[in-house]
Write a structure and sequence with these properties.
Layout lengths: L3 E3 H6 L1 H11 L2 E6 L2 E7 L1 H10 L2 H16 L5 H5 L3
Parallel strand pairs: 1-2
Antiparallel strand pairs: 2-3
Length: about 80
């Protein structure tokens, strides 16, 4: 379950909340009167979510899975040899 913080507590401790979200690469659910109303999210996590929702990104994953299915890939040894 994601960690939740009430709006009043968030307002009074915003710097600490941001530091916690950044340290844990996570997010907080912001609540008002016990109901979720917003989120405070780490920027790296937000960028990952945006990338995962990108049509181009999703298409590249589908293409990569198809290449793997067809055996069109290089092994670790073929790429890096005996490093």
């Amino acid at each position: 379950m994601p960690k939740a913080v009430e709006t009043t507590k968030l307002r009074n401790n915003l710097a600490s909340a941001i530091a916690e979200v950044n340290k844990k690469k996570d997010f907080l659910v912001v609540t008002k009167n016990g109901e979720p109303v917003a989120g405070l999210i780490n920027l790296d996590l937000l960028e990952d979510i945006e990338a995962a929702n990108s049509k181009n990104f999703l298409k590249s994953i589908q293409e990569a899975r198809e290449q793997i299915r067809k055996g069109e890939f290089y092994t670790h040894e073929e790429v890096f040899g005996d490093l």
